[in-house]
Amino acid sequence: MTAKGARVLIIDDETPIRRLLKVALKAHGYEVAEAVSGLQGVQQAALLHPDLVILDLGLPDMDGLEVVKRLREWSRVPIIILSVREQEDDKIKALDAGADDYVTKPFGMGELLARMRAALRHAAQNGDEPVLTVGGLTVDLARRLVTVDGREIKLTPTEYELLKNLALNAGRVLTHRQLLRTIWGPGYQEETHYLRVYIGQLRRKIEPDPTRPRYIITEPGVGYRLVGGE
């Protein structure tokens, strides 16, 4: 699914924000629907089956986290949180509840549009894409082969699993807990030092300059993101 014709549902009780988003998104080829409360948003999502949801956490009738949980009971639609809440804990809760990304108000429209494109690309993947490419980085899932600018990179099994999960979710932030649960299991969800060690090892192997990462970006206090290709 590309921007052209993609249907976006905006769930936000602030009229100026909805108006701003509606004008900007329509100018970029999106179809736009609106809801001013959590309940209306859930109802609109069920009725319209949007391709992407932009959701404010501070709604008049229910917390945005509850909206995420209700939508995730039956839908895998990409959800981007748009909120004034800047605390890391709010971001982590939203992402762990099933949101795909988080943008803090005030926001740059260019950044939001880039996050939307990444979420739509991820949703369009059929799940068995054998080769994932981000810039000069290529992950061949069928052959378990990783190359950077055509040069094969030798990874340990754990390094490979970590990179594979980041690549499968390119452009999206994955929380520490999500990565630890996936790679090491539920009993390791608090062992963030494991991630720091392995992310450091991966960066030394795949980044041109590990001190200024091009591929694996740190979301401070939240998790990591593999940059999405355009």
Automatic annotation (TrEMBL):
GO cellular component, one term: cytosol
Biological source species: Neomoorella humiferrea
Record-linked Pfam families: Response_reg, Trans_reg_C
Protein's GO biological process: positive regulation of DNA-templated transcription
Protein name: Stage 0 sporulation protein A homolog
Keyword Transcription regulation among UniProt keywords: yes
Record function comment: Member of the two-component regulatory system KdpD/KdpE involved in the regulation of the kdp operon. Upon phosphorylation by KdpD, functions as a transcription regulator by direct binding to promoter regions of target genes to positively regulate their expression. May play the central regulatory role in sporulation. It may be an element of the effector pathway responsible for the activation of sporulation genes in response to nutritional stress. Spo0A may act in concert with spo0H (a sigma factor) to control the expression of some genes that are critical to the sporulation process.
Modified residues (4-aspartylphosphate): 56
Gene Ontology MF terms in the entry: cis-regulatory region sequence-specific DNA binding; identical protein binding; phosphorelay response regulator activity
InterPro entries cross-referenced by the UniProt entry: CheY-like_superfamily, OmpR/PhoB-type_DNA-bd, Sig_transdc_resp-reg_receiver, WalR-like, WH-like_DNA-bd_sf
